[in-house]
Amino acid sequence: MATETALTAKVDGSAVAGLALAAAGARHMFGVVGIPVTSLASRAAAAGVRFIAFRNEQSSGYAAAAYGFLTGTPGLLLTVSGPGCVHGLAGLSHATANAWPLLMVSGSCSQSDVGRGDFQELDQIAATKPFAKLAVKATAIADIPRLVFQALAATVAGRPGGCYLDIPSDVLHQTLTQSEADALIAAAAADAAAAGSSPPKHKSLDDGIVKAAELLHRAERPLVVFGKGAAYARAEEAIQKLVDTTGIPFLPTPMGKGVVPDAHPLSATAARSLAIGQCDVALIVGARLNWLLHFGEPPKWSKDVKFILVDVDEDEIELRKPHLGLVGDAKRVVELINREIKDQPFCLARSHPWVAAITKKAKDNVLKMEAQLAKDVVPFNFMTPLRIIRDAILAEGSPAPIVVSEGANTMDVGRAVLVQNEPRTRLDAGTWGTMGVGLGYCIAAAVAEPNRLVVAVEGDSGFGFSAMEVETLVRYQLPVVVIVFNNNGVYGGDRRSPEELTGPYKDDPAPNFFCSGCGLP
Questions:
Q1: pLDDT tens per residue, range 415-425
Q2: Helices 13-23 and 143-156, interaxial angle, to 10°?
Q3: Pairing status of strand 10-12 against strand 175-177
Q4: Which helix (H) or strand (E) holds 316?
Q5: Are strands 454-459 and 28-31 parallel, antiparallel or unpaired?
Q6: Distance in angstroms (rounded) separating the CA atoms of residues 374 and 196
Q7: pLDDT per residue over 200-223, tens digit each?
Q8: Which of 152, 187, 240, 290 makes a 20 to 30 Å CA pair with 230?
């Protein structure tokens, strides 16, 4: 009788959404509650989805984006309607720009009041569409399970990115029985499982794999470049095997650092200009030929370089028009290349002219930097504290701490000094160069990787974007160390020329100078 009563008990849209998210495998959700989603957060938590409450939707969105990268599963962002949704666009767009899976769920005004100037009314589907792979609205409570599973699947299909689910206030308050909710969720799960069992349709890789192996074998100056897409794809073992087997030097993009340890003798990070300027064949794995790689164009790259571009998105390959494009998951494609090379093995000796040139240049540059790092400069420059931080992080051993690096100068210098020897242990401004990500990233990393220490190395300007989230760290007792460089604001403070120090407001603080009169040393 008790079971029958439980099955006929009524549940509302908030409960159905929470149950559907839990059934789909969600374990964490980030956001800011308020009308009309407060109950949704509580219901999701009751169903087993831990809700991390932030002070600002932008920071929670950046947290959800980083969570997607670190776990390989969609990060969840919950916002209120109207301005909450608008604030959430920062995280949604950031996730899509970086190809990280994120599902943003927002409440919205009652459907019957659309167009009447309702509280926080906004066409949220129209607002989110430019930044989302999929933007859908539940128009009735029965839609919620299907759309939850559909949207979550879309975040990870093909190139990962952000998706949006809109649940109007009236839908959140609609009810059905527990048994009806269970049936809808089960049906949605079954449909999603059936759709997921069908592999994506790509052209056969066989010929391309053979050509890739041949190009690498015949190259005089080959280079392997990998990015955060390779880290996301968990391609570290396959890529390190390729490097170790062939002896080809490698170059990571900033968040690709650690896929192969920075300490590996074939790392070309400290010889970057030489490596990209003189290589004749470059295998690009999980990295786009965008501004971070100088668009693959001269003068940074040789005009004769042959790119082998590995990307999960065929449109990206069509855009870049490489010498050879391979569409597929980074891990799988590199494993296939390794298999092909095993049948036709080759390995560049350490005495090979190309390897020797890269090794020598990298060693010379490292020695120059270490000479600067060895000096104890007081008042601090960037090098002295970064050396201290680097050594402390390395002393932690394994599992290595996750480093969150944010700022302009602080991030750029830190990229050269701080060492990543394990994958997915560096988070920074990413493809968009976004400031304000730091504290949200920290919270996501601490939640996603509870066995790792999280260390944030922040410029004072970057830290200011999300500094209030320190309270969130404390509230949830998360193991995070936050280090702030007081370098007087954006790009190190007041750099105005005499010509700019004129006019009625010439005595105001410089736009990029934040610490005048704040009492800091």
A1: 999 999 999 99
A2: 40
A3: antiparallel
A4: helix 314-320
A5: unpaired
A6: 54
A7: 666 779 899 999 999 999 999 999
A8: 152
